[in-house]
């Protein structure tokens, strides 16, 4: 290790960042909310290596394979950084043929050598939060419905009530209606991807792409229009089920039956009101074989040209005809997860079979775009609610004294130890004789709620002073209260509990206001910033 | 995405593994225990990218730099996978000159292209758990003492009471005594690393290395022996402080003063009994500048030739003269963390300055070898306590019925939804008409404690059956009890609470036995397996 000072390029690699402080705290809170929901549904965590054998990733991502990070050939196996969490899961399933039914979740970073757009949250290293149910031991749409239920629980518990919609469609309905309308078989995928743009451009432009660029018969395009502009709930399924042309197509028929079943199950799960059956939703990936879905919020579908003073409208209406970011969240094939929709997924029954012909395991899952969820949540919190605090400390142990004051360092340590023993989060100054102002500033910087103050006379009487930080001047306990050392930990715990209860009550009261447009307002602010 | 089945090499890359199921659950529990302790001391999480610019890592790991994984040059910056968490932290500190005092923790994977030894827990991708206190605003040994307190809290809360010792030494004492004994300045580092082997080989061999291989005067070596074989507590510090030759050396004098101070602070933190001042502890890394330490357990220092029937001895005595694995846990320089000692660290005041001359920030920290801690903990749990369960599910919702039974799928979904709404962890069969045996087997496979059983007649009366799994045949509640749907969630929560309380009481009772040698026995078993 040389002693000379070298001049370094002091930065993180392009498209990567350090997570620290309040951003890291907020992100961890999002992770733990999501994990808690996953566990509530019996899911188990799977942790795979950050790199895979290069062959495992080859041929899974089409032309986006160029975005894969390769490790240098240093002798031995050729490896690449994982590009998503779905392919490693499929590899694991193929390697573990005894596992026939599994609910697995995985929260980890993935890597894509794309052009980063930090302000939009598009990074080269970013987190994905995936949950997938694999296994053949199920009847149609039961696990699929539970995945959608999981999506609602995640967003409800993140506090997004009323601020999100789950768009749902079915690959078999889509394929069937293209056949019924007369789309030639070889054009179905490309016409499907044109339809998927309906949330970004008006029908006339989509039609032009189909007819002028992709050579579709105009009559066929017009037939397609009658279907794909439709969105709704159960009544739309029923209306389509009385469409004889559609019903004559086996794929569409199966798809509609499954969709009706799904609606039934979503009703049992009490989430029907969060669902929009949207016939224009197509999703980019080839590997979906059944139901597909995408969670959108106002924040993920900003207006093309937001008109000031535009009246608040229901999300479902709003999303129609609006422009959304090009960077659509697509769990594997699209390098820009987390910028458009905030979660997306679907059923993919044939991916595992690509690794092993012995292991054909049907799967259904969803991927949450944490970076986008993080940005929106942070914007929603507003400037006022943001803190610079780095951690949640309960107590700062201080000492004051007059002339000849020793600093009471060992005594502060002993008191800290008592409180640690009781499970409390405690800090104290590392100086032998810290000034009062230094100790108060350190406590305030982290918004520590309570100070325990040591004084020589009080200590001699076996007592210390417990002071709640930030009390008004006139408050009777402004200068703290004397507490016996023997009951100190208990006393502080009770005070913390009381303070938390009061804060929760205050938050509940203020969230009533926030629901009245406050959150939507914040999300709109975010969109403006991102343009 | 081609449709052809390709033959894949279905494996993870060499030296890496998937973490799943009960192993993953246990590891997560270790992580959360450690994180909780870290947070109790006001630490904030820092998450850095998995790869760094190649220049950042260059020149930090001496000849072990050959073990660094490089990313392929695909255009743009040259990057490498991180080798430890300390250098990224130092890079972050140098990049954030406004941060002058910080307690940060980081739990993440690091990468070393070493020869893997899976059975010993030596992997190419493995976890490190680091906590480091950086900043100049402290008086000597105060943060150092808190780091040692953190080490004890971690192992106490992992249930290792009485099963570990923290060996402590000070670089300044070591350097001073080498000077006093007459070691030429340029030989101090190499003689120091010979001394560090005293826990692996007897003095005669270490002396031979010093004299024959390293050309040290035999008289000097004999003087060294009088010091480095000594270990003890406070009394050893005091005895050395009356050694006039040592006191005349400024480095040794400072080191001893700091050591005495450390002992004072460790007493205030009530952990003096876990500490062994061990003059042979030298640690490999060049960058340590002050106190150094290493946590050992019987499991991390196996006997060179374990004699059957050897009486149990106090750890401190045991570790003397025993062979420990060559794979010493060294936080940055040794590629095999987590095999020898179970945690290690020290003070390094000059590392950050290698990145920026403006940022000379003193640091002290410790790294926990989670893989080793995992292996020992798993062995301690014993075969009997191990389960194959993949997740902690509270309730399995079932339905039974006679002829014409519909399966009550939607009803099961509704009941599951009620319980999820109450925050409970719930599963049910994804089949429309599951057989009773299938449902029971699914619940038993995950050791789910309670079943909620739906029957058509009972449902009509607004009731379901709550059944505790695994009750004996004669138990009065063997067949479950009828509960109103409206109070179901509450009822199940109460039962879960009661069951947990009972289990905790039973565990407390049995742990008294375990402490009486049970744990040590298990650790010895592990050593045998690892030989």
Automatic annotation (TrEMBL), chains A, B:
Q: What is its main location?
A: cytoplasm
The entry lists its GO molecular-function terms as: ATP binding; histidine-tRNA ligase activity; RNA binding
Gene3D superfamilies named among the record's database cross-references: Anticodon-binding domain, Bira Bifunctional Protein, Domain 2
Domain Aminoacyl-transfer RNA synthetases class-II family profile positions: 15-373
Q: Which GO terms describe its biological process?
A: histidyl-tRNA aminoacylation; mitochondrial translation
Q: Catalyzes what?
A: tRNA(His) + L-histidine + ATP = L-histidyl-tRNA(His) + AMP + diphosphate + H(+)
Which UniProt key words apply to this protein?
Answer: Aminoacyl-tRNA synthetase, ATP-binding, Cytoplasm, Ligase, Nucleotide-binding, Protein biosynthesis
* Stretches the record annotates as Disordered: 303-341
* A GO cellular component annotation in the UniProt record: cytosol
User: Where located?
Assistant: Cytoplasm
Q: What class of enzyme is it?
A: ligase
Which residues bind L-histidine per the record?
84-86, 112, 128, 132, 283, 287-288
Q: Which InterPro entries match?
A: aa-tRNA-synth_II (IPR006195), aa-tRNA-synth_II/BPL/LPL (IPR045864), Anticodon-bd (IPR004154), Anticodon-bd_dom_sf (IPR036621), His-tRNA-ligase (IPR015807), HisRS-like_core (IPR041715), HisRS/HisZ (IPR004516), HisRS_anticodon (IPR033656)
Per the UniProt entry, the Enzyme Commission number(s) are 6.1.1.21
- Report if keyword Cell membrane is assigned: no
The family assignment reads: Belongs to the class-II aminoacyl-tRNA synthetase family.
Describe the function of this protein.
Catalyzes the aminoacylation of histidyl-tRNA in both the cytoplasm and the mitochondrion.
What is the protein name for this chain? Answer: Histidine--tRNA ligase, mitochondrial
């Amino acid at each position: 290790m040389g002693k000379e000072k070298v001049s370094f390029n002091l930065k993180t690699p392009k498209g990567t960042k350090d997570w620290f402080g309040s951003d890291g705290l907020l992100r961890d809170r999002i992770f733990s909310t999501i994990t808690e929901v996953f566990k509530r549904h019996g899911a188990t965590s799977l942790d795979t290596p950050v790199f895979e054998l290069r062959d495992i990733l080859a041929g899974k991502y089409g032309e986006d394979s160029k975005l894969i990070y390769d490790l240098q050939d240093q002798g031995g196996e050729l490896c690449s950084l994982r590009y998503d969490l779905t392919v490693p899961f499929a590899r694991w399933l193929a390697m573990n043929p005894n596992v026939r039914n599994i609910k697995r979740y995985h929260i980890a970073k993935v890597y894509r050598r794309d052009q980063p757009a930090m302000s939009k949250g598009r990074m080269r290293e970013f987190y994905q939060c995936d949950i997938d149910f694999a296994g053949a031991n199920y009847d149609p749409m039961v696990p699929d419905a539970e995945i959608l239920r999981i999506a609602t629980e995640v967003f409800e518990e993140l506090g997004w009530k009323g601020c999100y919609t789950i768009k749902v469609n079915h690959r078999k309905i889509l394929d069937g209606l293209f056949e019924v309308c007369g789309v030639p078989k070889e054009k179905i995928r490309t016409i499907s991807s044109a339809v998927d743009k309906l949330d970004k451009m008006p029908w006339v432009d989509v039609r032009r792409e189909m007819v002028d660029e992709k050579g579709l018969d105009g009559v066929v395009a017009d037939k397609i229009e009658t279907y794909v502009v439709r969105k709704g709930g159960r009544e739309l399924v029923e209306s389509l089920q009385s469409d004889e042309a559609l019903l004559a197509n086996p794929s569409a028929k199966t798809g509609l039956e499954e969709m009706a079943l799904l609606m039934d199950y979503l009703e049992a799960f009490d989430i029907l009101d969060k669902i929009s059956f949207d016939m224009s939703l197509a999703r980019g990936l080839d590997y979906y074989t059944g139901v597909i879905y995408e969670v959108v919020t106002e924040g993920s579908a900003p207006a093309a040209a937001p008109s000031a003073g535009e009246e608040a409208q229901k999300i479902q209406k709003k999303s129609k005809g609006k422009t959304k970011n090009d960077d659509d969240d697509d769990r594997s094939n699209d390098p820009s997860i987390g910028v458009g929709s905030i979660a997306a997924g679907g059923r993919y029954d044939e991916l595992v079979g690509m690794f092993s012909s012995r292991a054909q395991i049907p799967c259904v899952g969803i991927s949450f775009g944490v970076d986008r969820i993080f940005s929106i949540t942070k914007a929603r919190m507003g400037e006022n609610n943001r803190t610079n605090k780095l951690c949640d400390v309960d107590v700062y142990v201080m000492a004051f004294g007059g002339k000849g004051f020793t600093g009471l360092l060992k005594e502060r340590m002993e008191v800290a130890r008592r409180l640690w023993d009781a499970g409390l989060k405690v800090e104290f100054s590392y100086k032998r004789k810290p000034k009062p102002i230094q100790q108060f500033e350190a406590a305030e910087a982290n918004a520590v709620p309570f100070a325990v103050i040591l004084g020589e006379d009080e200590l001699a009487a076996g007592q210390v002073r417990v002071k709640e930080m930030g009390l008004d001047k006139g408050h009777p306990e402004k200068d703290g209260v004397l507490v016996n050392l023997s009951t100190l930990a208990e006393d502080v715990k009770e005070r913390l509990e009381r303070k938390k209860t009061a804060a929760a009550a205050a938050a509940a009261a203020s969230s009533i206001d926030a629901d009245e447009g406050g959150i939507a307002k914040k999300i709109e602010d975010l969109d403006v910033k991102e343009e």
